[in-house]
Amino acid sequence: MSFVFGPIKQDFNEKYDQYCKLIYKIAFIHLGNKADSEEAVQEVFIKLFSKSPVFSDSEHEKAWLIRVTSNHCKNMLRSFWRKRVTQPEDMSVYFGSHKEFENAQLIINLPAKYKTIIHLFYYEGYAVKEISNIMKITESAVKMRLKRGREMLKMELEADFNE
Questions:
Q1: Which pLDDT band holds residue 160 (cuts at 50, 70, 90)?
Q2: Among 1, 67, 70, 130, which is most buried by a count of CB atoms within 10 Å?
Q3: Is the pLDDT of residue 11 over 90?
Q4: Distance between CA 94 and CA 21 in Å, rounded?
C-alpha cells in the first residue's frame, strides 16, 4: 500500500502561504494572544483539509476561511477553559506597521460581532456587500456594525487622548 503525500503537501503549503497571515490576523483580533491565534490557524487548516469543501473560485475559498476562522474563535472564547484576559504581544511580523498593530489592539477590545467586520472593511479592503456575503448577514447589519464599531473606537481614542 502506498500513499501519495506529494500533491497534498504541495497543496497545503500553497494554501498556508496564501491564507496564513489573513487567518492569523482575524484570530488575533478575536483572541488577543499569539498562542491561541496560532491554535486557531491550525484548527482552521485542519477543517479545510479534513472537510475538503469544493469552492467555485478563490474568493469563495477565502470567504469560507474567514467565516470558519471567525466562528472558531467565537467558540474558543465561549470555552470553559478560556481565560478572559488578553495579553497582546509584539506581532509586528503579521501587521504591516506599528500603527496597524496599535489599531489592532483597540479592535481587540471591541465586542466580538464588530471585530471581524471592522478588520475586513479597513484592513482587508472588502466592500460592505462582500462582507455581507462572507459573514452571511444583511448589508444593513454590516453598515450598522461598522457604524457602532467606529463609534466605540472613537470613544476609546478620545479617552486615550484626554488622559
A1: low
A2: 70
A3: no
A4: 6
